[in-house]
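Query structure, 376 tokens:
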């Protein structure tokens, strides 16, 4: 038989390294739930694997990588721990967003190298007033994942002008404070705590408009990943961890539940075979949807229709992946409800992750329908 060689995506450094991150994250998953934050070893492995540098411009030492690579890598991490996958995905995404800063600002953020851990608060909950060659900002942003480990934060604020504008501001760790407020049913390990900035001055080199990233117009864009609108890829960031949860649930089900439903011939009983096959098919379909959307984004040129389709497919993929976890959990019996059971963690995590507003199917469906049937 011919030798099977891994594809370019499967052999990408971040995808290969993701397997080690998944292993370490799985070992620390229960501690992450207890502590409501990832263990330092998990964060270190995530950075060593290249998630933070994945979308960083090459001129700053980054990889300027592809969306298909990051979707594959994040899903692998999610097989071990969805919270770690969420952190890895957002870490990569925020590195891409920081590439929209002016060049002088990029040099400051990545002065210590491309593995700088950047977190983000995307809702414009802050206030910014003009002051000399910069802005004075205030605000409080909840749900900032992995903030306890961050080097920089990108926060969004409305400017106090005649025509207010939403802008992102890069703030170094010493210029904000955090409060432990994260107590979710699922995704406990993300440490999505509250970040507060009080009267901090931010120079012009550390800010850019929300419109810039919404339209995909990065200065000095050197790679396709810096030329696509946020809506074309935002769903990928949040859906890939859900896919990882579904695959983790499949593995947990096969290990813990399948042996109790084995027939005399050694195969699965009919009902169990149906559960396994349907759940695996739902997860596989979710993966196909996300990978197709990622490949479209990797062209660097996305139409309005393709953006709407991507949002639809990411929301649908999250629904399919969550349905797979539901199916497995419902069939697993009382044992799966124990706190020590990985399946119940994947179940809670999948639902929490899929509840993110970006993955809401109704709004995505309306946007897709508008592209197919525009108003006259």
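Result returned for the query:
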């Amino acid at each position: 038989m011919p030798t099977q060689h891994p594809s370019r995506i499967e052999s990408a450094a971040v995808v290969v390294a993701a397997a080690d991150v998944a292993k370490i994250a799985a070992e620390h998953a229960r501690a992450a739930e207890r502590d409501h934050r990832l263990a330092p070893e998990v964060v270190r492995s995530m950075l060593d694997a290249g998630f933070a540098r994945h979308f960083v411009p090459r001129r700053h030492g980054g990889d300027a990588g592809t969306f298909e690579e990051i979707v594959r890598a994040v899903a692998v991490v999610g097989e071990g721990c969805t919270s770690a996958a969420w952190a890895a995905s957002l870490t990569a995404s925020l590195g891409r967003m920081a590439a929209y800063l002016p060049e002088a600002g990029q040099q400051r953020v990545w002065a210590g190298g491309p593995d700088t851990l950047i977190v983000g608060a995307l809702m414009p909950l802050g206030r910014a007033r003009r002051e000399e060659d910069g802005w004075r900002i205030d605000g409080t942003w909840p749900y900032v994942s992995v903030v306890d480990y961050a080097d920089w934060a990108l926060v969004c604020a409305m400017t106090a002008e005649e025509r207010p504008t939403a802008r992102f501001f890069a703030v170094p760790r010493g210029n904000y404070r955090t409060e432990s407020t994260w107590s979710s049913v699922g995704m406990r390990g993300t440490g999505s705590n509250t970040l507060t900035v009080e009267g901090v001055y931010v120079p012009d080199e550390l800010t850019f408009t929300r419109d810039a990233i919404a339209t995909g117009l990065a200065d000095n864009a050197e790679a396709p990943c810096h030329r696509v609108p946020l809506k074309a890829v935002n769903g990928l960031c949040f859906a890939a961890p859900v896919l990882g949860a579904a695959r983790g649930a499949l593995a947990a089900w096969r290990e813990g539940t399948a042996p109790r439903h084995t027939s005399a011939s050694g195969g699965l009983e009919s009902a169990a075979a149906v559960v396994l096959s349907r759940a695996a098919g739902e997860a596989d379909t979710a993966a196909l949807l996300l990978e197709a959307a990622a490949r479209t984004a990797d062209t660097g040129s996305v139409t309005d229709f393709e953006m709407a389709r991507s949002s639809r497919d990411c929301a649908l993929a999250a629904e399919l992946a969550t349905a797979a976890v539901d199916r497995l959990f419902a069939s697993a019996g009382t044992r799966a409800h124990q706190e020590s059971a990985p399946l119940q963690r994947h179940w809670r995590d999948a639902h929490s992750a899929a509840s993110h507003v970006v993955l809401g199917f109704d709004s995505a469906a309306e946007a897709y329908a508008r592209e197919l049937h525009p108003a006259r």
